[in-house]
Amino acid sequence: MTSQATEGAVFVGIDVSQSQLDVAVHAAAGVQSFANDFAGIRDLVAWLTPLQPARVAMEATSNYHIQVLASLVAADIPAVAVNPRQVRDFAKSTGQLAKTDRLDAHVLACYAARIQPPVRELADEPTRELQALVTRRDQLVQMRAEEKTRLHTAPAGVQKDIRSHIAWLDKQIAKLDHDIDDRIRKDPRWSAVYDVIVSVPGVGRVTAIFLIAFFSELGRINRQQAAKLAGVAPLNCDSGKWRGRRCIFGGRAPVRSCLYMAAVSAIRCNPVMKPLHQRLKAAGKPPKVALVAVMHKLLTILNAMVRDLKSWAPPTAVAP
Length: 320
What we know:
The chain has about 325 residues and is of the alpha/beta class.
């Protein structure tokens, strides 16, 4: 974190909505507005380029920011999408309680100047397309689960319609599965990583596709960074003499969710995770704490395996 803006540097905040981009420069009055479409983003890039900003900050708002961010990065403008909750907390800390698009643009510019969030690697176009497919598949799977729940309590008159919808969802999910698998198999790197991940007992196809789509850093960062990015790193909650229970939060929700499901499976069949989980339970650890520890250990192993592109090897027995 930087306590004050670099002397002479330009910091910009962009409030992104579905149809409009409101742009503010730190310590400058007024807001520039551009349409959130191809022509508007082109004009935004042309307007920003001469300013040579040190940082451009925008909130990660649904998918409306993705094309803006990609265009700025492609133009060598240091842009970053930041967590909306962190920006809102920053605004409150400065006494800015009101909220409008124009005010938010100024708050983002101030956030960029004071915090100077690091610019992260932007996913390339094939990865963004894979993320969209995996996200859509997850949405349809959730829809199917909801429809199956409704089927149990629905009147006879609508059960036929629900069954028809479930059958349609089955076909769409199967179609997406085929498309996802085809894209992964056609990419040598993705294919190699996929084979490494699914070689781990308890880790299946869905976990592999989520990690490939949403955790491209896997194998390229250390285990502490991986745990923090995935949101499975226990964080301290201490104050003075009081020592609170460490907990996890933040990180990438899709990654954390798939690791949770993999851990639930791994504690049943994985020769490393099962005894780890049993030891933690025997030591009196709460069930959720034990499961998070398994998630953490599983991620550490996966990170090392993907780094070396080595498939799972059963642990060797230690001679007495």
